[in-house]
Specification:
- The protein is built from 14 helices and four strands.
- Strands 1-2-4-3 form a four-stranded antiparallel beta sheet, with helices on both faces.
- By secondary structure, it is an alpha+beta fold.
- It has helices spanning 2-28, 32-39, 46-55, 73-80, 100-106, 115-118, 130-138, 148-171, 181-184, 186-192, 236-245, 247-255, 261-269, 272-289; strands at residues 92-97, 121-128, 175-179, 199-208.
- The radius of gyration is 21 Å and the shape is globular.
- Residues 31-41, 44-61 and 67-71 have low confidence and may be disordered.
């Protein structure tokens, strides 16, 4: 028996080693355009830094329980699943990551942002037509959801659930942080999370008890975002005046050696080269998942 247990342990260690090697190969295969983006230093305004620090939770003192009572995670997720969705098909799934080792594997594909390993829980919200298609096949129905429209529908559903969860979590006293890097590295994240066909990661939210409560970040006036009956042109100067006048934003521009706030976005944060490269990578991820040819 002891020999058998030892052999099993040796096999498990070898499998873990092989898995880690495969993940390292994924990291090493990231093209130069991606690694250069990771290395790009963007000096963030104080408000953004505060939001990040608030999501780096007191993970050892206040872990988020799996028990379905009070403010706990499964309760919040279950409530978020009551959100509206396409045809009540619920074409979304959520992968919950608690393992410190798994977070370390995920971290490079989120550009090593500290909240991945700093928060007790990482939630990856996925567009998922796999489960529904499997049900169709089991009930003598032919699924027809390996197309771009179905991906968009599932993406909308996953996003609605993610935002519903975010609102519920914050109301319950938790801190959250969205990570947009999920779209950039969808193929690699899919492999790490072992996602089957027709399942694509859409967004990631880190969750924990906040160490502090930062001030709300700025928003544009609602008057420039609401259009009655038809879309109307707005006064761009007036709409962005308050945002551009914020001392934190003016310092943001100065720290990044730009003339205007807009240039920080177009030249550094979300520039043409990266947008095109990541668009190509996302399309390839959709091809691998079977949504497009």
């Amino acid at each position: 028996i002891l020999k058998g247990l030892h052999a099993l342990e040796t096999l498990q260690i070898e499998q873990l080693r092989k898995q880690m090697e495969e993940h390292q190969m994924l990291i090493d295969s990231i093209p130069d355009i991606v690694t250069s983006s990771i290395r790009t230093e963007v000096v963030m305004p104080p408000s953004s830094v505060e939001v990040v620090s608030a999501t780096q939770s007191e993970k050892t003192e206040k872990p988020i329980s799996n028990e379905r009572t009070g403010l706990f995670l499964n309760d919040l997720l279950e409530k978020s699943f009551r959100a509206s969705n396409t045809g009540n098909m619920q074409t979304y799934s959520v992968v919950v990551t608690r393992s410190e080792e798994k977070k370390k594997v995920l971290a490079p594909f989120h550009f090593n942002q500290p909240m991945i390993c700093g928060a007790p829980v990482v939630l990856t919200f996925c567009a998922d037509f796999y489960r529904f298609s499997q049900w169709c096949k089991a009930r003598n129905a032919e699924p027809c959801y390996n197309n771009f429209l179905s991906f968009i529908s599932a993406t909308i559903d996953a996003t609605i659930v993610a935002q519903t969860f975010a609102m519920l979590a914050e109301e319950a006293g938790l801190g959250i942080c969205y990570l947009g890097t999920t779209n950039y590295m969808a193929a690699e994240i899919s492999q790490v999370l072992e996602l089957p066909e027709l399942v694509v990661p859409i967004t990631t939210i880190t969750v924990g008890y906040p160490a502090e409560t930062p001030a709300p970040t700025d928003r544009l006036p609602a008057s420039g975002l609401i259009h009655q009956e038809t879309y109307k042109e707005v006064d761009i100067d007036a709409l962005y005046a308050e945002k551009e006048a914020l001392p934190a934003m003016q310092q943001f521009v100065k720290d990044n050696n730009k003339e205007t706030l807009a240039q920080v976005f177009t030249d550094i944060r979300y520039n043409k080269t990266n947008n095109e490269a990541f668009s190509k990578r996302l399309w390839q991820a959709l091809q691998q998942a079977g949504y497009v040819e």
